[in-house]
Amino acid sequence: MTWKDVVETTRETEQWPERSFEDLIGSTRFDVHERAHIVVDDTVCRDCPSRECIVACPAKLFVPTSDGGILFNYEQCFECGTCYLVCNNEGAITWTYPEGGHGVVFKLT
Amino acid sequence: MADVDVVVVGAGPAGSTAATVLARAGHSVILLERGPFPGSKNMYGGVVYPRILDQLHPEWWEDAPIQRWVTRRSTMVLTDDQALTVDFRSEKWGRPPYNGATAFRPDWDSWLASKAQAAGATLVCSTTATGLLRERGRVVGVTTDRPEGDLRADVVIACDGVNSFLAKDAGLYGEVDAANYTVGVKETLGLPKEVIDERFAVRGREGVDIEILGGTGGVNGGAFLYTNFDTLAVGCVLKLPALAAQELRPEAIIAGLKRHPAIAPLVEGGDVAEYSAHVIPEAGLAMMPKMTGDGILVAGDAAAMCLAAGIWLEGVNFAMASGIYAGEAAAEALAAGDPSAAGLAGYERRLEDTFVLRDHRKLRRAPGLVLSDRVQHLYPEMIANTVERMFRVDNPAPKPGLRAIFNSERKRAGIKLADLARDARDGLRSFG
Amino acid sequence: MRITVCWKWVAVDGADPDDRWAGVSPADEAALETALTLAGNGGEVTVVTVGATGSDAGLRRATAVGATHVIRVDGEGLGARDVARAIAPIARGSDYVLCGDYSLDRGTGAVPAYLAAELGAAQALGLVGVDRTRVPLRVVRRLDGGRREILDVPTPAVLSVEGAVARLRRAGLAETLSASTATIEVVAGPRPAEHDVVVTPYRPRARMLPPPSGGTLARVRDILDIGAAPAHGDAVTLDPPEAAQRIIDQLREWRYLPRDTA
Ligand SMILES: Cc1cc2nc3c(=O)[nH]c(=O)nc-3n(C[C@H](O)[C@H](O)[C@H](O)COP(=O)(O)OP(=O)(O)OC[C@H]3O[C@@H](n4cnc5c(N)ncnc54)[C@H](O)[C@@H]3O)c2cc1C
Ligand code: SF4
Ligand code: SF4
């Protein structure tokens, strides 16, 4: 059995009802600021073959669109830095911290 | 004219200890934090090793906001359907001066920052340092995201964590390579205290720390499971390029971990109370920046001081220690009236003389070894299969010898003796 | 111009009394921003909060963004009327008293009304707009059903504003620093008055109803009182103009449109 099988075959048991990602990230608090602290230049993404951000962003904020672009939402972001580290394409991601006092607020971690 | 003697950027473990030392030495210190309170941005696995505070805050355990004292430490090797655990417990670790404790960072960092405030440092939250102020090549302060937000200081101590834009701005970092970083992802699961006590065989404030090799869905990295008072922390640490090169997303990898037969019974029924993620500077010595510049010191994760070497995942203690030494060195430089790189040289001297750089030197091969493909993908199975065959009763066949089993498993896994010998040597040099 | 702003400091996470997770509502913030712009240079803005020491953090922030005075009335767990009584002596003499129209804990929202009564002031509550260029002040109030009401308010008046009215400005660094060490004026709070009637939110009483009968659609119709419309529509094929007319007729019949319009 591979790891994937483990995940698949045990997916929906009594103890582990499938949980949506929205529920998961909904457990974390974010004080969203009106300014987007990360900006993604979709025109660069259109020529990106690897698209590392989609699988790597722990907040699942990079969503491929049907026309080959990337839809990015900044609101529920951990401010972790994974995206700018994995993305090899100059200019695709403009990354800053949100205005002081805003963004993710951890409590139990 | 400087507004203050020292600006410390980041009220994490490094920043708060640096500010405490400097304020006690009689210097004016501003401690800047971009979150609404210290610790609000800081996520980690879950165990602090606070003995470094013995001198700075004697009897720190009296009021430190801990969840449980770690009295049981397990190291687990997981394959898809096997688990090998080495389990150690010590009652001594449940009594002063203790060894490690699980704690929430929003609590721990707030507590540590309150000590800096008590010493006289001014904590300013909800304020992001956006860059450095320079004069004739020297760092003379920081810019912030508040109106009229420039802050001039004789010394800036960058304790701004793994992404440290200040250290990068100061030109202290070389090329930034994603291969030097891992991302940690975690779920905090709510469970009644009694259930946790029973499942993990602990009582009162005793707690368990489980470090896991394997369990990351084939992505190079590691996993962990820690007990808090009435929550569990379960998560994994994933090497960035390896994560990005495959298809399982981080939350799916945790989901798989939680369903592993060796883990599921421990975490079953836990409700997600918080989901979190943070990046770790994983490569240790190999990625450390220059730590001193004219008017600037870099401490903690900002200087990649986190020790992430398989069975060890320690960063808070390294951050607190480097914060203390940065504070001492800055105080020394200010007293001598020389905040240049030369005047601040006491910092690196202290780091070299103490566990901070000694551990990193000793363990310099460890991060590479632990995250190597052999250790990640071949050894766990080989070890688990060897143990499985050792304990299997294959009557009427007689018991085989350990060496014979090991050799056949090694061959089956396709591991060359020379590679094994080299890894064993690196392992012994690091961990021996 | 003198303005008093009332702030309520609330632990965001209901159960958790920890001040790290406490704050004031966007509406309270909007009230302060409105006050600061109204008062302009030379005006006086006093921020008052009734609460325990934890709320000092909020008052420091108010100082940092430009409040001229901040006062904390020491007290916890007071009813709306007691809060109004505690604030009244401080607010008396102000041209305007500004409140947020809700607090983070979504209390009864009765403080502004009680306060207006205590002060004998006019009141305009639930404002979505304030036009400071007009004298007397012109404000826009939200009514039910999306309608708006425009009022000219005399002084003194108690106003409560919605969060969207204004966004509180960001405090400068120097102001934040000096506010962080400023001493906060504290006055003793009142003891809760004994004769007060406790007001709880309105809850409709349960009453007995006959058990439902008939199908779901019939019951929904019953409740909505829309009479006996046919259970299913009939499918017809029509040209667009005819189809439009047909829809209009049907809507008239169902009384979604008035019957007499041409
Ligand atoms: C998944 C994971 C598991 C871990 N597990 C453990 C463990 O079990 N035990 C352990 O000891 N260590 C662990 N670590 C490592 C540990 O968390 C770090 O090494 C430690 O937090 C470093 O402390 P620091 O003070 O250097 O940085 P941080 O804790 O990152 O603090 C930096 C502070 O600076 C602030 N800041 C950043 N930029 C700015 C700016 N521009 N302006 C103002 N403020 C700013 C941040 O908000 C933050 O408060 C783990 C890390 C991760 C990610
Ligand atoms: S953000 Fe970077 S990695 Fe992601 S699609 Fe765009 S260019 Fe590619
Ligand atoms: S910083 Fe982290 S959470 Fe935010 S978008 Fe980038 S990868 Fe996702």
Concise overview:
The complex is a heterotrimer of chains A (109), B (432) and C (262). Chain A is α+β, with helices and mostly antiparallel strands. Chain A is built from 5 helices and 6 strands; from the N terminus they run H-H-E-E-H-H-E-E-H-E-E.
What brief labels describe this structure?
heterotrimer; B: 432 residues; nine-stranded mixed β-sheet; eight-stranded mixed β-sheet; 19 strands; 34% helix; C: alpha/beta; two-stranded antiparallel ribbon; 7 helices; 11 strands; elongated; binds flavin-adenine dinucleotide; binds iron/sulfur cluster
Commentary on this structure:
The complex is a heterotrimer of chains A (about 110), B (about 425) and C (about 260). Chain A is of the alpha+beta class. Chain A is built from five helices and six strands; from the N terminus they run H-H-E-E-H-H-E-E-H-E-E. Chain A has helices at about 5-10, 20-25, 40-45, 50-55, 80-85, and strands at about 30, 40, 60-65, 70, 95, 105. In chain A, the strands form three sheets. Chain A has a two-stranded antiparallel sheet. A two-stranded antiparallel sheet of chain A has the order 2-5. The model of chain A is unreliable at about 10-15 (pLDDT under 50). In chain B, about 35% of the residues lie in helices and about 25% in strands. In chain B, strands 3, 4, 5, 6, 11, 12, 13, 14 and 15 form a nine-stranded mixed sheet that branches. In chain B, strands 1, 2, 7, 8, 9, 10, 16 and 17 form an eight-stranded mixed sheet that branches. A two-stranded antiparallel sheet of chain B has the order 18-19. In chain B, helix 1 packs parallel to helix 8. Chain C is elongated and about 75 Å long. Helix content of chain C is about 30%, strand content about 25%. Chain C is an alpha/beta fold. Chain C has seven helices and eleven strands. Chain C has helices at about 25-40, 55-65, 80-90, 110-120, 175-180, 215-225, 240-255, and strands at about 1-5, 10, 20-25, 45-50, 70-75, 95-100, 120-130, 135-140, 150-155, 155-160, 185-190. Chains A and B meet through helix 1, helix 2, helix 4, helix 5 and strand 6 of A and strand 11, helix 5, helix 6 and strand 15 of B. The structure holds flavin-adenine dinucleotide and iron/sulfur cluster (SF4) (2 copies). The site of flavin-adenine dinucleotide has 38 residues of chain B, from helix 1, strand 3, strand 15, strand 19 and helix 8.
